[in-house]
Amino acid sequence: MEQARRDPEAFGELYLRHVRSIYNYIFYRTGDPEEAEDLTSRVFLQALQHLPRFQERGLPFAAWLFRIAHNLVANWHRDRRRRPVIPLSENGHERAPDRVEALVERQEERERLLRALRRLPPDRQQLLILKFVEGLSNAEIARIMGRTEGAIRVLYHRTLEALRKELLREP
């Protein structure tokens, strides 16, 4: 971190260490691979630009990156509500006619889960992504989200219950 402040080339090491987790976080929040790529690059661009002003506060560098990503995703969702985008096809590509039925069902279940996840409040979405996608511990999640470990356990329990209700509500 200190080396990256003095030498922007050293920032590349921080990028390589964290790009996958930041991309995954953003992808699960947006559901769009192209937008996730764009927002991920913006996270690291902002981090590089603001690195000289970054102050150590006992939190890992990743916590700062996740905070930047969270803010960019929140802005992205706000902008999308103002200017909705209508895709030309489901994934931007036509499905091959010979797809196996099981693959289609699996994709539908995944989309159903993602829709239910996106209806949860942003902090609960963040918690589930950090827990299940990134595999972080409650202590690590607490540091990233600025909460106590006990508060994370309570939020986790309530979030799973809310997600279960969302899934039961959707056909």
Q: What does this protein look like?
A:
This protein is an all-alpha fold and 171 residues long. Helices cover 73% and strands 0% of the residues. It contains eight helices and no strands. It has helices spanning 2-6, 11-30, 33-50, 61-82, 101-118, 122-133, 138-145, 149-169. The chain is globular and about 55 Å long.
Core attributes:
171 residues, mainly alpha, globular
How many individual helices? 8
> Percent helix among the residues?
over 70%
* Shape descriptor: globular
Gyration radius over CA: 18 Å
User: In angstroms, what separates the terminal alpha carbons?
Assistant: 48 Å
Largest sheet: none
Q: Please state the structural category.
A: mainly alpha
Give average pLDDT, whole number. Answer: 81
Strand percentage lies at: under 5%
SSE string, helix = H, strand = E?
HHHHHHHH
Quick one: how many beta strands?
A: 0
Detail the poorly predicted runs: none
Oligomer: single chain
